[in-house]
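Re: beginner question about structure tokens

> Can someone show what the tokenized structure looks like for a real chain? I only ever see the sequence side.

Sure, here's an example I had lying around. Input first:
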Amino acid sequence: DWSSDVCSSDLGHAIECRINSEDPAQNFMPSSGKITALHQPGGPGVRIDSHIYQGYDMPPYYDSLLAKLIVNGRNRTEALARLRRALAEYTVEGVSTTIPFHRALIDEENFIAGRFNTDYVASTPLDLNANSPAPSQE
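And the corresponding structure tokens:
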């Protein structure tokens, strides 16, 4: 049975986050402007599919997708750990992004346990500032 093979722990676990130029604190309102700083994470089990670069002008007229962050691991726990690290390293300045939303989501206990449905985002309050990296001390 193909579906049981897909669920097999031998295949590991993958999670994708869509990094959009939207403000999750403002009901995911689109955000346009110039990307003034950019650092996209990498490392084992981390992949970025993106077209953006520092200096890129995000137009207000099209899809707000900036990047897809995909992580994989031997199991959900390892994939979540890799995602947590990648999101902590991810920097996009100049436009609002969904990165704070993803940082908050991956530490929510029901998400960690895999207990969610299509109404999850609308019904689960998240603290978008709880997992923000500390500001740099320059």
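Each token stands for a local structural state, so reading them left to right follows the chain. Residues 19 and 98 are 6 Å apart (CA to CA).
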